[in-house]
Amino acid sequence: MAESFVLHDELVCLQEGRVQIENEIPIARLTPSDVNDKLDDLIEILKGDSSQILNIEVFDGLRSFIRHFDILSLETCHKLVDILLSVFCDQTKSVEADLEENAQHNFEQDKTSLQSYAFCWHWLMTVAETRWKSIKREVDKVATLAGKPKARTAKAKKESGNAWDWPSQRVAALKAAISLLQLDLGRIIIASSDISTIINMVTKSAAFLLEDAEIVKDDEMKDDITEILCICMKNYEAGAAYGIEARVLGEFLREEHLADFVAEFMYRLATRFEDTRLTENVLRKSQGQEFSDKDLKPAKSFARFLVRASELLPKEVLKQMVHLQVHLDSDSYTIRMGMIEVIGNLIHMLLASDNSESAGKSLEAYYEIFQDRLRDVSSYVRVKVLQVLMKLTERHPDTGLTDIPIATRPALINLVAGRLQDKASNVRKNAIKLLARFIETSPFMAIAQDEGKLSLRHFEEKKRNLEEIIKMKFPTEELPGVAEIDESEKNEHTMDVDEPESQQKPRPVEAGASEQELRNLRGLLKYYKDGIKFIRQIEAVVPTMCELLASNAKGEVIEAMNFLVVAHKFQMECAAIGIRKMVHKIWDKDTGETERLSVRDHLMRCYIAVYFESDNAQVIADNLINLTHTMTLAELTSFEQLLSTLVAADVVTQSVLDVLWGVFGSKKHHPRRRRGAIMILGMIGKARKEAIADNLEMLLRVGFGEYAKKDLLLARYACVALQQLGTVKRQKGSLAYSYSRLPANHPIFMRLSELIVDPTAKSLDWFGFAEQAINAIYLLSEHPDLTCASMIKTITSRIFGVSRPDDAAVDQLTAQLSQTLQINNETMQGTPVDSHEQSLEICDPLELSKLCFVLGHVAVKQIVHLEAVEAEWKRRKHAEEAAKTPRRAGSQDELDQVTGTAEDEFAEAIAHIREQELLFGDNSLLTAYGPLLSYICLNNRTFDHPMLQIMSVLALCKFMCVSADFCDAHLQLLFTILEKSQDPVIRSNTIIALGDMTVSFNSLIDQNISYLYNRLNDADLTVKKNTLMVLTFLILNGMVKVKGQISEMAKCLEDEDQRISDLTKLFFTELSTKDNAVYNNLPDIISNLSHPETGVNEESFKNIMKFLLDFIKKDKQTENIVDKLCMRFCNADTTRQWRDIAFCLSLLSFASEKSVRKFFEHLPHYQDKLHEPTVYKLLQDLLSKAKKTAKADLKSSIEEFEGKLQELHDKCVENDQAASKATQEHLRRAGKVKRESGIHGATEKSRRLNTSARSGSAPDADEADVADLIAAPATPGVTQRAVGRSSTLSARKQTSYANRPTRNQPPDSSDDDEALETAVEDEDDEDDIIPAQQTQVPRRHQTAAISEESEGDQSDSDSGHGDRHTLKGAKHAFRVNTSAKSDENDEDTADGAESSEEDDAFETILPRRRRQSGVMRASVATPKRVIKTTVQTKTRPRAARTRRTTDEDELLA
To answer: Looking at residues 1390-1398, what average pLDDT do you find?
Structure first.
């Protein structure tokens, strides 16, 4: 066998699948029992003597079983593997014994037997692993079909392998290979090629096993394979090492699951075997590897390998960084991410602790790389840089220092702060985390006296104290450089080196002071100065953090909260703003899959950490009270909800409540603290009513006692707290819960009434108190109307001097008011009687304002009270019905369906009281005051006190919300106030009230909704914001139909105020969720926004349409919009409108083929607009975008259409240029004729004007222009040219305005006046005549028609006959040119020559049939215009020409 078996040849045959077995056993044709018998015989032979493998029959029999391994039973497979591994190990031990005994006579036999066993081992490893994988796939497939969980699937795998335990046999096989490789094969096998063959065979089997990711997870298997590779690398020649190196680069590093394995293999090779050749070679040769974005798997594997290698072998990686740094510019972002992490590991493990100069330079270079990569194009790379920096900010446990140099921190903080504006949410989130980590690891907490505070106030105070100490001990004038501490210590020590020794002066130092003390003081001063810079850097990012609290990404919001909590923990003053801002997140409705994802829960944890983590109840109470001093009204509303939630979660203890009540009732505390305490108690009472009910006596004594008269704000907040007793949270869909009301004569209501009617209350805080007091009365009193009626009568009697009625009869009071104020129909229509007007003027406006406020608020609360009465009645009715038997209840339901329910009758009665009784009933107190309010609002000049006007208008609005009839009667008055009032408060209140009226009386307001839209253009931002919010509410809730006026809201998208812009974006985002709401109104929005008069500028139009068209998602909508926009090209008059339409088209997706076909079909509508460069560019971009997503056939159609569009574009440009040249040529010829007949024309025109003047009629605008021209001072050269120009009138077409009315002539009269335009130009500029910009026609000329005079028409037609054929095909192009190029040529064209040259130039090329009709328009591009006269003096430059229009000339005449 020794002669016939060659290992290399056998391996080649095995690889090619043509292994020849002479004595092959036909296993496929044998029965299972026969197969077992054959195997037993084979085992019998090999067990007795492992060297029997040299027997060709035994060897062929063993190979036969391996070849047919797939068809063997599992038991047979297990038995075969066992016997092969067993005899293989026996033979290895036998060879080892021969080597020890140096039995060279057995070496040849040992060589052949080892090669034979190694070959069978290699072949068996391949077929066994392959079959085991197939078994696993079958098991997984069955488990998947059965729908079993993964745990049961794994169990099934284990059960299926009980007959054959390959995993354990696989471990034994690897150990057998290790035993083989540990032999000194060089003594047995002389040829190095044979040894290399064995090594490659073993490593190939190991590589085959590594293809399974599960094997790498098995620590024992991984260790054995690593051991095999290490032995091959260390004990054998370079050829084996080269083979493993090639396998690592070509195979291992392209599999992601092998990246960590390769690094760990290199680590073991370097540490245990002290061989770093493989590591160095692989890292050096990887320099030439290139990765693209498409090579995701190889790039990820290589990057992971580099990261793991830098963790295990940082020194070796640092040595090879010169070769690896090319990967920092790799096209694959994964490789760049890996390199960033590698650098971070090198800094953390080596460079940060190395104080050498080379390490410092490397450290500086690597941090510069970080700064550069913070601007990487890939957001993943930017995130990785932030994460690495976060790791480097961790303090070392032994030194307490971080890996980031102090000098590098400011630049890094600035760059990280800039990443807060990053477009990627993940980048922003990690930037927030890093900034918080910078605070936590700040180097400015080293001094124990600072107690870890980073307070800017504290640091500035310390800095001032140090400066004073240094100035006192070491005078600044004697010590240059002390004031400037920002220099490095080295510069400070050597700042006097340049001076000669003779000129250096000794520093005067006080007794006891030393140079060391000076250095210490300087160091401290520098410490505090750097600390101030750091704190200000953090303060600069707090506004951005507050903005990120409104982000839609939960991760950002949570990290922003954490940042603010960390800043507050270190007592940074800037954190207080953010802590207050984030309270609004309590309204978020998200819950999240876990608690970590819930913003509301995280907000509660943050506030608990900031304000409630203390064992001292006094500290917690002070924290809560201080919050009320700094929060705004909106923040207090959100904080109330948050605090109620915390109370419900038992976070607020009883001890805190006791402290708060103690502060509220104590005389020692400042009034501001008492107000804060009752505010917090009111918030707590919302969730825990007994907290208020148990201390009602103290609330009445302090809140409504002597303190209240001096401090109305305290009384106001006491009323708010009192209201919590009557507040009941109602569940949606359920009836209101009942609660016990207090009698009307309760001391609380009596005390509130006394405070409201108190005449000594002159503070404006009275209005806020009165509002909450009336709310409390209506919420808690059994008969609030009686209490409030008494207050109104008392205030009225005091103001107007009317005796207060003793009984409840309202008729007497109404008669007295009417007699005193003379408020009747006659007064309302005319002027009040002088005596009574005088009596009104002497009224105290503040007292009258109070009366108006009480009246308005009582009217609104009376409606609420009626609704509460109705709800209570329904609750009782429902309780009675629930007590009935089911049979009686069923019969009652049937009866109600026929005759109607009692609830319906009661609701109608309540509605009747509201509409007819409250403001118009004979027994209603408010009836007498409706005319009073309207009278005050009408006579705003008499009642000109600002507060009185505000309160009277507010009360009138509230009255109008009560009754539809009252609203209808005073609606026009309210609209007048809205339009004319100069007070923004009045306009804001009116807008809000109109929103409420729209909800209640939709039919009245809907037809006047334009008044609301007009306020979107209000000069006051508050009015504009309130208008936007009101319209948003009305539209989104279906109270107002969305019409074309919505374009006014679209304009707010580009408002200068960011809040208004954000609110508008939110509105349209919500509107887009309605059924096609944005889509249906797009045509009107586009029309209004692009209108020359009512539209917006072009840049704003683009921004608005970018936002709105982003809501168009459906293909059908896109198709319809394409159809409508293309049709608009026909009616678009200006190039600006062409550009707007083309821009809107370019924003559409064109995802469907039908939309592209629609665009093709409408080519005739825009083919004549292609000479406009912007339009053509936008259409090209449109086609390019459509081509990216189009299919093959559509893509070819688009390319064909692009060619056609290019041809049409070239033709349009050619026609436009031809029209422009022809126009200039015609005007040049016309100018020569004018100069020849100028004198005659001017004389004739002067005669006509003189005749008109003698007849007494006013000259026409045209004639006045010419008269002014003739009467102008005779400047040399100017008069001659003017007369020359006028003489051409006889050669031009004579036109007249038919049926044009004048001042002295009826509209039906006609006069054949010549349409003249006279312009003066320099003789040198005759070749530069270009049609000037067209002007708008005055209203009085819009109905005028132009008739031709046959002679003038014929002469003009003959003169232009030669140009007609040239310009006939470019008629439209000329029309466009005259309007589009007027602005460009304004400096080279006399502005007065705006009509005649253009009209003459084009009228000569009109078709003959148009001229024969007898009627011709004066202009082609625009309607008829006012004919102007421009006089230009020769002494002035062209750009400064003097102009006189028709109106100026009429004044001169």
So the answer is: 38
User: DSSP secondary-structure letter at 1348?
Assistant: E
Residues 1137-1174 as b or e (16 or more Cβ within 10 Å = b): bbbbbbbbbbbbbbbbbebbebbeebeebbbbbbbbee
Query: Nearest to residue 1185, comparing CAs of 1223, 1215, 1159?
Result: 1159
Q: Give the Cα separation of 522 and 112 in Å (integer).
A: 83
Query: pLDDT for 323-368, tens place per residue?
Result: 999 999 999 999 999 999 999 999 999 988 888 889 999 999 999 9
HSE toward the beta carbon, residue 982, CA cutoff 13 A: 5
Residue 419: CB atoms within 10 A of its CB come to: 22
At residue 1297, φ and ψ (nearest 5 deg) are -85, 115
CB 379 within 8 A of CB 422: yes
In this structure, of 743-747, 1033-1037, 1244-1248, 1357-1361, the range with the lowest mean pLDDT score is 1357-1361
DSSP character at residue 1257: P
Helices then strands, counting H and E runs in the chain, come out as 71, 2
Check if the beta carbon of residue 1088 is closer than 8 Å to that of residue 1013. no
Give the pairing type, strands 1345-1348 and 1295-1298: antiparallel
Give the DSSP H or E segment for 852.
helix 845-883
CA gap 846, 464 in Å, rounded: 51
Q: Kindly report the pTM of this predicted structure.
A: 0.73
Work out the number of other CB atoms within 10 angstroms of the CB of residue 322: 10
d(CA 357, CA 930): 89
How many other CB atoms sit within 10 Å of the CB of residue 441? 18
Q: Are 124 and 78 in contact, with CB atoms under 8 Å apart?
A: no
Residue with the larger pLDDT of the pair 579 and 8: 579
* Per-residue pLDDT at 26 exceeds 60: yes
Pairwise CA distance, residues 746 & 240, whole Å: 104
Q: Where are the alpha helices (DSSP H) in 1109-1152?
A: 1115-1131, 1135-1147
Return the structure tokens found at 235.
């004990």
Give the C-alpha separation, 1235 to 1212, whole Å. Answer: 35
Amino acid, single-letter form, for residue 306? L
Q: Rounded to an integer, what is the distance from CA 669 to the centroid of its chain?
A: 46
Nearest partner of 687 among 651, 657, 720, 645, judged by Cα: 645
With residues binned 3-state (H G I as helix, E B as strand, rest as coil), the percentages for the chain, rounded to 5, are: 70, 0, 30
Give the containing element (helix H, strand E) for 974. Answer: helix 964-980
Segment 656-681, tens digit of pLDDT: 999 999 999 888 888 899 999 999 99
- Residue 633 has a CB neighbour count (10 Å cut-off) of 6
Q: Give the mean pLDDT of 1099-1109.
A: 93
43 vs 240: CA distance, rounded Å: 34
Q: Three-class SS string for 407-461?
A: CCHHHHHHHHHHHHHCCCHHHHHHHHHHHHHHHHCCCCCCCHHHCCCCCHHHHHH
Note the maximum CA span of the chain. Answer: 150
Distance CA 858, CA 747 (A): 20
Cα–Cα distance measured from residue 1152 to residue 300, given in angstroms and rounded to the nearest whole number: 37
In angstroms, rounded to a whole number, what is the distance separating the alpha carbons of residues 211 and 1442?
A: 90
Give the angle 742-744-750 at the CA atoms, nearest 5°.
105
**Ranges assigned E (strand) in 1382-1447:** none
CB 1311 within 8 A of CB 1421: no
In whole angstroms, what is the distance from residue 752 CA to residue 750 CA? 5
Question: Two tokens at 248?
Answer: 């690592």
Instruction: Name, in order, each residue with C-beta under 8 angstroms of 896's C-beta and a sequence gap of 6 or more.
Output: none
CA distances from 560 to 427, 439, 442, 538, 587 (A): 13, 13, 18, 13, 17
Phi, psi of 684 (to 5 degrees): -65, -35
